[in-house]
Automatic annotation (TrEMBL):
Protein name from the UniProt record: BTB/POZ domain-containing protein
Keywords: Ubl conjugation pathway
Keyword Iron-sulfur included in the entry's annotation: no
Segments forming domain NPH3: 208-338
Protein family membership: Belongs to the NPH3 family.
Annotated localization: Endomembrane system
Pfam families xref list: BTB (PF00651), NPH3 (PF03000)
Source species, domain of life: Eukaryota
Domain BTB residue range list: 28-97
Gene Ontology terms: cellular component: endomembrane system
Origin species: Quillaja saponaria (Soap bark tree)
């Protein structure tokens, strides 16, 4: 996966009595409070790059030795703030798909724009995001997953929409032209016989290579991405059906023969009530039903029956049940007449 390093100075941040500071011969003159954490820092490097801090300092009294600035609603918390602060000090930071969303939201919050200083953090993040993250398959997936923690910020900054567009465009592109994840490449090598012809290996690798990685997405982001893929009109409906089956097996315990439940769901079930879990599964199921291709035979009759069974168990909407029953009836009739 791609990463970018910024800055060249070694990390000199340290903690003393629950206060984060930075080693310097110059006395600190500002205290910044971020979600219960205190940072004893210096105005000059911070204010030279952060327009928001400039404004907050100008609005607050400066009578004491340390001016106090509070940032209670800081996106990304102390980790994202410290990354931005280290950038201001020239300390080396590393950006990747795992932290680029929180870093971008934090930089936006601090207003680290080109108007304040050329080559500021927002500009550098955007260059890395557009030139590297969006060009990688796994990077795009991981980044899109990360937007779930900052939904409003990610929508406003168009991070979510750009990731969805990038993922959909890769699915619609021939896999030979896509930088695939290491996990997929390994699966492809394991699944394809080395004794087969190049065309056979290529054909096997081409079929629904994207479905398993996309199944890691939550239902809202998955639904939006699948809509973008379907609107492209290039993917066979049978592959759409296969992808939906993989997703249903991943997230719906009533669909999977082995009742596979992911770790996140298991931990959530400790605190969530049974009704909330059922409601979540119902929404997920109805979303899957809404994504089913209209063409007959795009999904198997057995899969439709499993969906119908789950719809009855989860008390899905009448329209969802009727649609499934109609499609099951059509495919059973076709099977009988053949």
């Amino acid at each position: 996966m791609k990463f970018m390093k910024l800055g060249s100075r070694p990390d000199t941040f340290f903690t003393t009595e629950a206060v984060r500071s930075v080693s310097s011969e110059v006395s600190s003159d500002i205290i910044i409070q971020v979600k219960g954490s205190r940072y004893l820092l210096h105005k000059f490097p911070l204010l030279s790059k952060c327009s928001r801090l400039q404004r907050l300092c100008s609005e607050s009294p400066d009578s004491s030795q340390h001016q106090i600035v509070q940032l209670p609603d800081f996106p990304g918390g102390v980790e994202a703030f410290e990354l931005c602060a280290k950038f201001c000090y020239g300390i080396t930071i590393t950006l990747s798909a795992y932290n680029i969303v929180s870093a971008r939201c934090a930089a936006e919050y601090l207003q680290m724009t080109e108007d304040v200083e050329k080559g500021n953090l927002i500009y550098k993040i955007e260059v890395f995001f557009n030139s590297c993250i969006l060009h990688g398959w796994k990077d795009s997936i991981v980044t899109l997953q990360s937007t779930k923690a900052y939904p409003l910020w990610s929508e406003d900054l168009e991070i979510t929409s750009r990731c969805i567009e990038a993922i959909a465009s890769k699915v619609l592109t021939h896999p030979s032209k896509v930088s695939l994840s290491h996990s997929y490449s390994r699966r492809g090598r394991d699944d394809i016989s080395y004794n087969g012809s190049e065309s056979q290996r290529h054909k096997a690798a081409s079929k629904g290579w994207w479905a398993e990685d996309m199944a890691e997405l939550g239902i809202e982001l998955y639904w939006r991405t699948m809509i973008a893929i379907k609107s492209g009109g290039k993917i066979p409906t049978s592959l759409i059906g296969d992808a939906l089956k993989i997703y249903a097996s991943r997230w719906l315990p009533n669909i999977s023969r082995h009742r596979h439940v992911n770790k996140e769901e298991a931990s959530d079930s400790d605190s969530d009530s049974a009704s909330e879990i059922t409601s979540k599964h119902r929404l997920l199921l109805e979303s899957i039903i809404s994504l089913l291709p209209a063409e007959r035979g795009a999904v198997s009759c057995s899969f439709l029956l499993k969906l119908l069974k789950a719809a009855n168990i989860l008390n899905a909407s009448s329209s969802s049940k009727m649609e499934l029953a109609r499609r099951v009836g059509l495919q059973l009739e076709e099977a009988t007449s053949q």
